[in-house]
Amino acid sequence: MMERSLTIWLCLVVLTVICVPRANAADTVTSATVSSSTVVDKTPPTANSPSIVVNNSDICQVGTSGALQTGIFGISGGTTSRDINCERIKLARSVYGMGLKVAGISLLCQDVRVFDSLWMAGSPCPFLGKIGDAAKAEWLKNPYMSPKGSMIILQLATKEQKKRAEDNKREMDAYVEPEPTWD
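-> structure tokens emitted (183 positions)
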């Protein structure tokens, strides 16, 4: 066993001594130098989109820009869009600051989320100058004057659907098909 491991070890040493110098010799013999230069005639085409800066925090505008470029044709553009909810909040804050609290709340109530949250809290939005229970009664009389998608409209639609279903059921119950006679 000892002889076999010694033989393997000796073979590995001999192979290392023989192969390593030849590999290094082969690397040093072949060498080449390649030099080249690249000439760029023109820069690649680019479509730069305009920078839209809205720095004033009192402006309810959002800037958007974009660009598209191919190898031949490029186009870019930009625009601003109004943030209606931001405008509504700023207007309500201004009107409320002038002491017109009902008008400020009325402005905010144009948003269905505010309308529904006040309705659920038991403080309905003002209705043509009426507040409190008087406003609630008017909203219930005129639900279609509330913001689109509000709870009042959804409740009304549900009641109408139930009423139609009950009417249809009554009509079906009232209709009795005569029994056939087999005489």
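The chain has a mean pLDDT of 77.
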